[in-house]
Amino acid sequence: xxxxxxxxxxxxxxxxxxxxxxxxxxxxxxxxxxxxxxxxxxxxxxxxxxxxxxxxxxxxxxxxxxxxxxxxxxxxxxxxxxxxxxxxxxxxxxxxxxxxxxxxxxxxxxxxxxxxxxxxxxxxxxxxxxxxxxxxxxxxxxxxxxxxxxxxxxxxxxxxxxxxxxxxxxxxxxxxxxxxxxxxxxxxxxxxxxxxxxxxxxxxxxxxxxxxxxxxxxxxxxxxxxxxxxxxxxxxxxxxxxxxxxxxxxxxxxxxxxxxxxxxxxxxxxxxxxxxxxxxxxxxxxxxx
Length: 289
Ligand code: ADP
Ligand code: MG
Fold this sequence. Notes:
Elements (H helix, E strand, L loop, with lengths): L3 H12 L2 E3 L2 H9 L2 E5 H5 L5 E7 L4 H12 L5 H12 L8 E6 L3 E6 L2 E6 L1 H4 L7 H12 L3 E7 L2 E9 L6 H10 L3 E5 L4 H11 L2 E3 L4 H11 L5 E5 L5 H6 L2 E5 L4 H6 L2 E3 L5 H17 L1
Parallel strand pairs: 2-9, 2-11, 9-10, 11-12, 12-13
Antiparallel strand pairs: 1-13, 3-8, 4-5, 5-6, 6-7, 7-8
Helix pairs in contact: 1-13, 2-13, 4-5, 7-9, 8-13
The structure holds adenosine-5'-diphosphate (ADP) and magnesium ion.
């Protein structure tokens, strides 16, 4: 039978939108020494906005039109932001042919017979040469915490699109709270190292960047060598990482799918609820001992 303290913690948590799937999850959450957070949509709002368009080989509006055409077939948050900007600027585009997503890299497609790639500069340099001006532009945008999408048309770098996804308002205080509880916090992201360092630095946490989807799983296994690790992610593409962690917590209300793989959830998209969950778990275990 489930000890009364655990049953009480489960129902008290549920009332606050902190769901844990049973006693083993509470017991492991209480011993967690490190929380790994997905960046996009978990620590940040998940609503990036285009902040800069750098025209290199093409006019600004052409850069945006090529990018929107290939992003039209993508469900990635960056794609949505590019489309929103194209609509706002009344830039016309038709969805690309042969559109395909390259997980953790970007998207490709054919626009008016031209091969177009939109994605991470580190995966773009093999597709087109970057001159010193382009490289310096990428570096300064990334150092400002922006994600840069390189737009390549037929092997030429047409331009750069910079996007910024603001951290959630409670992210910095939540990380400080975890630290005060003796729990380390680290950010896991597919985004580049400079952008990740800028955002993680502002939040006062550690980071591991440029992780391909299976790289998050490998990073978690490594982190879990010393202490039980809690992974917090916002959804479907985090499912493998949530499953690989000692405790996987889905964040947000649209987490029905993630909840199947996860050990629990915080329903209100508040980063501070992760600290609240660990506190609750610790209190429940303290009452048993
Ligand atoms: P995250 O861990 O931040 O969710 P992903 O693994 O989805 O990142 O993608 C890693 C990187 O690949 C992104 O930071 C971005 O640079 C690039 N990328 C992926 N998909 C797209 C896209 N549709 N448009 C532009 N860039 C993309
Ligand atoms: Mg995410």
